[in-house]
């Protein structure tokens, strides 16, 4: 276990260095607080340093294991090989310890046909129809990690494709390793009073601030949130600091998207009574920092996104759900009511001020998850995903040794499913030119095409021969 900790510390140092490098030079972080995504990118920086890390760490392993990392590859074959087909980790080869089980994790595709290769690991956003590991043998498990928005790869969200996988880790509570709370560090962070601005001060601040704040830089995503907010703005004041519908500027030093998790930024938005917390896509259990951040800061989220959000609220009075209002006009009038009525507003803050979380599903999920969020003392969810697959692979190895029938695992459609994007239809007196067009022109057709892609992909994979992207596209556009 000690070497895992030391590896984590080492990875942490690298992450810090790499993060600074990224922020300063690359500006790759496009959206609010995408820490996890950033972590993935950073992990590829480990690659060049890998060998040094291993020579320090490997003492607890038997001699043949040590050989894995030298020129000599004798040791490959002593442990099941789990091959990352998406080079997410950037690791050319590492022995990972998962409880009592050891697996060899690698991105080295030349091990595709190795007899010990038991599973292929895919990262959803990078899942590419080109060069899939086909033909697939009966003992080749496929495992999918996809915690991100469907907008990053719609074809995975259809039954023909998601059911290709044996093991899943997605934002859905139904997946084998549910990542629904991937943006929530802990119960303590949720209860924390650190940023809470008392209502009296918020009322004073209302002289120069709107009741609502909106900060979004990924404009016109599939959820059509900007259309809603645009309409809402005709009924109630909204301070909008991001690229989308901007009407107010952040201080100079906070303008980079990388500062979305900076203390200064938190202090600014914590002054508001309400935050418009709108996801970029509408899927059950797809819940991001947009929802948790206001709750952490002591601001009431006005939430639009996961239809099942009620299952995840800290208490039954902790957020305002857009879906409960027929029109933005009604939502605006409800917010006004809360803005004028301090007692009513405080009913939404009671759980926070008392530190009472009454939602048992939320508490249990946080307590039982086997991974941490921005916590170097715990595995992250990539480690947890690797270990879930390693554990399943070992389960079958043991059954096989005893001559028992093997276990079967298969993803269900609901492990990753989102409805087709829809546009808001308001009877706005002034039709706004151009607005909503990206949704109608891009997201809806792209979702529809993704259904054809999913069918074509399924057919090609079931045929169990490798195929080229030309073959794939020819099939997609055939009908
Ligand atoms: C990939 O694996 C092959 C076969 O074991 C080995 O010869 C090669 O050096 C490995 N490549 C890397 C980059 O580790
Ligand atoms: C919210 O929860 C409280 C106590 O947990 C309960 O008394 C109240 O009826 C609930 N309200 C709603 C609207 O469900
Ligand atoms: C994995 O899925 C494939 C395709 O559905 C299936 O043939 C295979 O038996 C599954 N493996 C396990 C271990 O469940
Ligand atoms: C399929 O794989 C074989 C052997 O690796 C290769 O020669 C062939 O070009 C591949 N075919 C396609 C369509 O990618």
TrEMBL record:
It catalyses: L-seryl-[protein] + GDP-beta-L-fucose = 3-O-(alpha-L-fucosyl)-L-seryl-[protein] + GDP + H(+); L-threonyl-[protein] + GDP-beta-L-fucose = 3-O-(alpha-L-fucosyl)-L-threonyl-[protein] + GDP + H(+). Its EC number is 2.4.1.-. Its main location: endoplasmic reticulum. Residues 211-362 form the Fucosyltransferase C-terminal domain. It comes from the Eukaryota. One of its GO terms (cellular component) is nucleoplasm. It is a single-pass type II membrane protein. Gene3D superfamilies: Glycosyl transferase family 10, C-terminal domain (3.40.50.11660). Keywords: Endoplasmic reticulum, Glycoprotein, Glycosyltransferase, Membrane, Signal-anchor, Transferase, Transmembrane, Transmembrane helix. The keyword rRNA processing does not apply. Protein O-fucosyltransferase that specifically catalyzes O-fucosylation of serine or threonine residues in EMI domains of target proteins, such as MMRN1, MMRN2 and EMID1. Attaches fucose through an O-glycosidic linkage. O-fucosylation of EMI domain-containing proteins may be required for facilitating protein folding and secretion. May also show alpha-(1,3)-fucosyltransferase activity toward the innermost N-acetyl glucosamine (GlcNAc) residue in biantennary N-glycan acceptors. However, this was tested with a library of synthetic substrates and this activity is unsure in vivo. Belongs to the glycosyltransferase 10 family. This is GDP-fucose protein O-fucosyltransferase.
């Amino acid at each position: 276990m000690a070497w895992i900790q030391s590896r984590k510390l080492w990875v942490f140092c690298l992450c810090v260095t790499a993060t600074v490098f990224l922020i300063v030079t690359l500006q790759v972080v496009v959206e609010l607080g995408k820490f996890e995504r950033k972590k993935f990118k950073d992990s590829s920086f480990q690659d060049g340093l890998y060998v040094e890390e291993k020579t320090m760490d490997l003492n607890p392993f038997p001699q043949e294991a040590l050989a894995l990392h030298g020129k000599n590859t004798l040791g490959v074959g002593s442990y099941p090989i789990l091959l990352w087909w998406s080079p997410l980790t950037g690791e050319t080869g590492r022995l990972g310890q998962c409880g009592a089980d050891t697996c060899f994790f690698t991105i080295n595709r030349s091990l595709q046909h190795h007899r010990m290769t038991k599973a292929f690991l895919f990262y959803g956003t990078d899942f590419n129809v080109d060069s899939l590991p086909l033909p697939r043998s009966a003992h080749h498990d496929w495992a999918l990690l996809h915690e991100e928005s469907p907008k990053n790869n719609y074809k995975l969200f259809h039954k023909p494709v998601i059911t290709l996988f044996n093991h899943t880790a997605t934002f859905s509570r139904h997946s084998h390793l549910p990542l629904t709370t991937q943006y929530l560090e802990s119960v303590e962070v949720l209860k924390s009073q650190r940023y809470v601005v008392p209502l009296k001060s918020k009322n004073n601040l209302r002289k120069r601030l709107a009741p609502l704040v909106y900060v979004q830089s990924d404009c016109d995503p599939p959820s059509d949130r900007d259309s809603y907010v645009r309409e809402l703005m005709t009924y109630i004041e909204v301070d909008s600091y991001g690229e989308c519908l901007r009407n107010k500027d952040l201080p100079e030093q906070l303008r980079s998207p990388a500062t979305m998790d900076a203390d200064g930024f938190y202090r600014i938005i914590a002054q508001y009574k309400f935050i418009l917390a709108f996801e970029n896509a509408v899927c059950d259990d797809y819940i991001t920092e947009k929802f948790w951040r206001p709750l952490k800061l002591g601001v009431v989220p006005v939430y639009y996104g996961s239809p099942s959000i009620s299952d995840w609220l800290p208490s039954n009075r902790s957020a305002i759900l857009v879906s409960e209002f027929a029109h933005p006009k009604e939502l605006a009038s409800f917010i006004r009511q809360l803005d004028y009525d301090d007692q009513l507003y405080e009913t939404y803050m009671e759980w926070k001020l008392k530190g009472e979380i009454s939602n048992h599903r939320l508490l249990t999920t946080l307590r039982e998850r086997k991974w941490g969020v921005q916590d170097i003392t715990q595995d992250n969810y990539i480690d947890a995903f690797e270990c879930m697959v390693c554990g399943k692979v070992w389960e079958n190895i043991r059954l096989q040794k005893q001559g028992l029938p093997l276990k079967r695992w298969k993803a269900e459609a609901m492990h990753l499913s989102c409805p087709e994007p829809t546009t808001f239809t308001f009877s706005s007196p002034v039709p706004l030119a151009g607005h909503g067009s990206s949704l109608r022109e891009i997201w809806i057709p792209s979702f529809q095409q993704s259904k054809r892609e999913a069918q074509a992909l399924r057919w090609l994979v079931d045929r169990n021969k490798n195929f080229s992207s030309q073959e794939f596209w020819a099939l997609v556009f055939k009908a």
